Amino acid sequence: NAGVTQTPKFRILKIGQSMTLQCAQDMNHNYMYWYRQDPGMGLKLIYYSVGAGITDKGEVPNGYNVSRSTTEDFPLRLELAAPSQTSVYFCASKKRETQYFGPGTRLLVL
Amino acid sequence: AQKITQTQPGMFVQEKEAVTLDCTYDTSDPSYGLFWYKQPSSGEMIFLIYQGSYDQQNATEGRYSLNFQKARKSANLVISASQLGDSAMYFCAMRVRSGYALNFGKGTSLLVTP
Description:
The structure holds 2 protein chains of 2 kinds.
Chain A: E1 4-7, E2 10-13, E3 19-25, E4 31-37, E5 43-51, E6 54-57, E7 64-66, E8 76-78, E9 87-95, E10 98-101, E11 105-109
Parallel strand pairs in A: 2-11
Antiparallel strand pairs in A: 1-3, 3-8, 4-5, 4-9, 5-6, 7-8, 9-10, 9-11
Chain B: E1 3-5, E2 10-14, E3 19-21, E4 24-26, E5 33-39, E6 46-52, E7 60-61, E8 64-69, E9 74-79, E10 88-95, E11 102-104, E12 108-113
Parallel strand pairs in B: 2-12
Antiparallel strand pairs in B: 1-4, 3-9, 5-6, 5-10, 7-8, 8-9, 10-11, 10-12
């Protein structure tokens, strides 16, 4: 199993551009999550999904959108990127109590 | 509100010594879960240990143990026999109701010295 994979690893965006962060898991987990980690801080929840077709907002959803058409994939869409979205983005999936994280995507918005 | 507090921004420990990283939490839910994750300088989040609120015994995983004091609302991580590879950021987290997501503390930076 590859676990949770994320692409790209690093991206630079200009203000106002859009992009999609990809997340996939091959463990057949229903629950998936997107978090962001700002420098010197813990992770904050952006969106989560409890299964294909079901998503909901977390603590910091503004400026983001998600979709979950399959169990495996949970992409995060940034529309009109802003400098405040410079962060490291982590995707995770959950089995029983434990969340397993992807390696993260480092995003810089200039 | 469900909140996690880690009051130690940085800690030092000598190799082979034990170290305790503090974590306090606040919740009104009777059922909750507490977690510790390690984040080395490479950036990945590594699950270390889990404690459920109804678990009778403190959780242990190898050199990691969780000192769970329910009345004090604390869930401190104890690392025994520290190794140089333990140098990392350590995050305490609590499971929240919404989708069983995690609410993280700000983390504690641990440096293990020879």
